[in-house]
Amino acid sequence: xxxxxxxxxxxxxxxxxxxxxxxxxxxxxxxxxxxxxxxxxxxxxxxxxxxxxxxxxxxxxxxxxxxxxxxxxxxxxxxxxxxxxxxxxxxxxxxxxxxxxxxxxxxxxxxxxxxxxxxxxxxxxxxxxxxxxxxxxxxxxxxxxxxxxxxxxxxxxxxxxxxxxxxxxxxxxxxxxxxxxxxxxxxxxxxxxxxxxxxxxxxxxxxxxxxxxxxxxxxxxxxxxxxxxxxxxxxxxxxxxxxxxxxxxxxxxxxxxxxxxxxxxxxxxxxxxxxxxxxxxxxxxxxxxxxxxxxxxxxxxxxxxxxxxxxxxxxxxxxxxxxxxxxxxxxx
Length: 332
Ligand code: CP
Prior knowledge:
The protein is α/β, with parallel strands linked by helices. 34% of the residues lie in helices and 14% in strands. It has helices at 26-44, 69-80, 101-110, 125-132, 148-161, 184-195, 226-229, 264-271, 275-278, 301-304, 311-329, and strands at residues 58-63, 84-89, 115-120, 136-142, 173-177, 199-203, 220-223, 235-238, 286-288. Helix 6 links the parallel strand 5 (173-177) and strand 6 (199-203). Residues 4-12 have low confidence and may be disordered. Bound molecules: phosphoric acid mono(formamide)ester (CP).
């Protein structure tokens, strides 16, 4: 529903789309987070009246790229809100016959959906669809560009864990560690978390966390020395090494080779979150990961499953966050 836009222009005036976090005002983020908290509380106590929230509405999910968390939590959120849901899986659709993503969106809209949820391999796909359709569009991750509902999940989880449920993150120190350059989650978080007041440090080797990324937003800086900086953070967000996006023909399909690093062993030695490293974090600091994880590469199982971990809380927050986002875009 957006006016013609580039990937940098992330929202329509009436908040009928959620395409990214860049440029989204703090007031809108805080309203979405407060709505999430209210929905989360209602879900927890089994409030059946939630079914009225999206009653009579239809949601179409268009996943042109694989997903577990995002797809299933959007589905469940829409169902918890009482909407009808139709799912498109690209591999079993007419995409295989050459239909474009925009044409696919127009086809699904023509069936009468109120809202489209779009996951795509290419940056800008959700924006292109939003420019073509009349219904609401929510970006569920576009290439290396943005993943706004994941950033809202992370802000909701971190705000809840730290008791900052006014969603004012002033003074909060967050490190985002690893394959930053490939990560739409890192970009959306850099924009959302700094807008909420946090200081964000991007940590990784130059090939994965280039210095230019410090220009993403004020209050974003780059750090190479993970061990030296680690005790200073309130939370670490570990990122999956996205071998499939590194352009190495041997790195796709679950392989673990990359043109962007000398070796996985060397990467892990410098940037993997081992129990020994986690032990140097400050008291009460948290570990996050948007998933999916490469256990034994960017994070060890003893840490991801350990007492500092918020990882399954992040997953759980997916349902209330996405229900709040759909309700906002649909004006209910
Ligand atoms: N975090 C995230 O987007 O995970 P999925 O790819 O499983 O949806």
